[in-house]
Amino acid sequence: MSAINRRVFLQVGASATAGLLVGFYLPERSRLTAQQAAEPAKLNAWIHIAPDDSVTFRIHKVEMGQGTVTSLSQLLAEELECDWAKFRTEFPPVEKVFGFQGVVGSQSIRTSWDPLRKAGATAREMLVLAAAQTWGVDTSKCRAESGFVINTSTNANLSYGKLAGAAAKLPVPTNVALKDPKQFKLIGKSMKRLDTPNKVTGRTQFGIDTRRPGMVYAAIARCPVFGGKVVSFDATKAKAFPGVKQVVQVSRGVAVVADNTWSAIQGTRLLEIKWDEGANANQSSAAISKLFAERAQKPGVEVSKTGDVAAGLASAAKKVEAVYEVPFLAHATMEPMNCTADVRADSCDVWASMQMQSMSQAAAAQASGLPPEKVNIHSAFMGGGFGRRGMTDFVSEAVEVSKAIGAPVKVTWSREDDMHHDNYRTASYSRFTAGLDADGWPVAWTNRVVSPSITNSSGQPPQNGIDRTSTEGSHDMGYGIPNKLVDYHWTEVGIPVTYWRAVGYTQNTFFVESFMDEVAAAGGKDPVELRRKLLAQNPRLLGVLELVAQKADWDKPLPAGRFRGVAVVNNVGSYTAQVAEISVNQGKVRVHRVVCAVDCGHVVNPAIVEQQIRSAVVYGLTAALKGEITIDKGRVQQNNFNQYDMLRIDEAPVVEIHMVASTQNPGGIGEAGVPAIAPAVCNAVFAATGKRVRRLPIRAEDLV
Amino acid sequence: MASIRFNLNGKPQTADVIPEMPLLWYLRDTLGMTGTKFGCGMALCGACTVHINGQATRSCITPVSSLGGKTVTTIEGLSADGSHPVQVAWTEGDVPQCGYCQSGQIMAAAALLAKKAQPTDADIDEVMRGNICRCGTYQDIRHAIHRAAEIKAAGGKA
What does the pLDDT read at residue A104? Predict the structure, then answer.
């Protein structure tokens, strides 16, 4: 996330405090809704309570596996003092009161920590006051517990359902006291995930499961070269395929509409399309790499500077230099992109798995020509997001097709479409120089980064050539080195890029933590010893380094054939250190065990934190061991999982997680575990083979 | 069009569709049974796994025409109420994250347990490596399969 976006989200968090409403959908609890005879009382935006005592949490952050439905419910329920077993949850539509609705940058807990607890406490105080007025006693004689207000003098009680109507008419208290963390009953507990029951029975409704009356199915043939356009097409063969109903041109290609998804996809493969391939027709990974290397020869725009690098390098007893590079990566969510749209003359409905509710509404408004308030956004559970669903291209396309054919339509992307037309984790090139003093400690450090801008993809071009998202992990690295310079070459290459789980840290932490190991080796230092010294002024990062070193028995020898490496990172407001234990056989790296220490502040749900770290390790390892999207003739060369494989169960390491007990405000967790795994593994590869891996994925030929 | 008769989740089913249509899309689009998921269309990821005559099978490459006289079980038919030992173990361990691949994971694991009551880690690797989980729930899946074997051995519904 850029600094600008971060600010926007934080402001949203603050404004949401004053407002009142949130939501999503858990069908197994929907029977409660069915029983609701009367309108629920809207205590605030997040909390609706019906006369039958059913409580609805309207969760404004969507679920893509990261556990928000459960952990945000813990924040609300903790202060509301309702019965954990009895509330239901729903995803609300786009409503102004929520401010910006979206899930990006591991922000959900961080931006909701105060607002949702206050929403819960405010609603509870209103219920208590309503009870006190009913009984004609002071609120000090009333106590809220498990969905009831209890009169402490008489032991009489009134349920929230009975009080909600009166409570909703009371003035909203402005300065409610929040619980002392020592009183927490839910926050800090590993509450079971609320979304599990439907996910083990196949009942969860993902965007791709949307079905509407009269709905047809479509797939779209898009130009294989980014930015290309349709010149002409012949749909004769496509239209002859069973099930195909209609073929229409849309802005990015040609849509085949059918009575089922399979026929639509088959139809797109039978289209004969003449493309104008445009400016990127000759682009290739080799040419991009060459361009990056050329640009890295000259200074870029200064992003951060400490001390005097020239003097530091001049005084150095030893210099270390290295060049690193990573390729483009696809997000490869298991649920391919899809969207269902129903555009009518006066309104538009959109059903999709999406990370950006507000932006999807704007995109659908633009594509339909309707004002945003006429666009109804229906959020579904996401079959993975990882940043891909922060884009809105799949929404715009579906709206276009529905508008063109005048019917509700579900546009489904094949896996090949998804891989060929992603917005990718950017390729990036990084050049380092370090100067070491006579004792082997670094006194100067330079890093030049060359890459497309990540924020540019979401309409925020670099200001004065600086995109801090593209250099994050480097310009903000936690090490104290007296002379330091990070510069950047903004270099667009015609390949669309965007946020990818952990964003700039996915490449820059690999670069920085690998090169830091090179510096350690050059100076004759143990990798933990060097980091310990350079993190002396960074207590939380030092804390996780010490914890991981202790838990991984860093100072004790490993069994023969096993090797280990370490890496640390501070991203999304959390601090993570990982030690990877590996073996190398015939050029194949096997990761056996990963020990991870994390300081993510006050933990809301420890089980979910552990899940996210295990998930992030596998996600990051997939990139380190397998991930590479290559470009030739302007096209992505990988089509499906046989050419762009994911880590499989037999390749997954055992992951051990150790959390630092903390009362600091919560940090993010969804992305915290991703960046450190690749460098930890590559540093272990160096320990095993003496070979420094300076490009990903790890290749057998780089280990000999 | 052709009429293909088979058993679906314990009930007779007659499919009148394009014979080449994969079972996946017949289930999802024609019947509205969306528990079985589309992931790759090439039997590379396992999200679409169902049982055909008890065998874990990728429905995305299984034409409806091949189903005549066979028995098909989907996630909707594995149990009426999530009480299959694999589902119980999955729930106990809170295995799913995004959950999209989990119907396929559960069907693959259930077929494994039907063949091997006490699968080893190597057995689990061999069968389950065909199922991708992009959220990386593999460690939890492995634990849950061992746990499901215990539940089944203790008399849990199979």
Answer: 74
State whether B116 and B149 are in the same domain: yes
Evaluate whether residue B47 is within a structural domain. Answer: yes
Least CB-CB distance to A204: which of B44, B99, B125? B99
B75 touching A (Cβ < 8 Å): yes
Cβ contacts of B102 on chain A, cutoff 8 Å = 199-200
Is the domain of B123 the same as that of B146? yes
Q: Which residue in the set B29, B74, B76 is minimally distant from A217, CB to CB?
A: B29
**pLDDT confidence bin for B1, thresholds 50/70/90:** low
Which of B128, B134, B139 comes nearest A332 by C-beta?
B134
Report d(CA A411, CA A399) in Å as an integer.
9
Residue A274: pLDDT band by 50, 70, 90 thresholds?
very high
Looking at the structure, tell me whether residues B109 and B68 fall in a common domain: no
Evaluate the CA torsion angle B51, B55, B56, B59 in order and state its sign.
Answer: negative
Give the pTM.
0.94
Give the domain CATH number at B7. Answer: 3.10.20.30
Write the pLDDT tens digit of every residue in A295-327.
999 999 999 999 999 999 999 999 999 999 999
DSSP string, A209-252: G---TT-EEEEEEE-SSTT-EEEEEE-HHHHHSTTEEEEEEETT
Is the pLDDT confidence value at A15 over 80? no
Rounded to the nearest 5°, which phi and psi values hold at A150? -110, 135
Give the residue from B135, B143, B151 with the most A CB atoms within 10 Å of its CB, the best one to mutate. B135
Q: Spell out which residues of chain B touch residue A410, defining contact as CB-CB under 8 Å.
A: none
Among A71, A193, A199, most B C-beta atoms within 10 A, so best to mutate, is A199
CATH number at residue B114: 1.10.150.120
Q: Which domains does chain A have, with CATH numbers?
A: 3-183 (3.30.365.10), 205-279+337-412 (3.30.365.10), 500-703 (3.30.365.10)
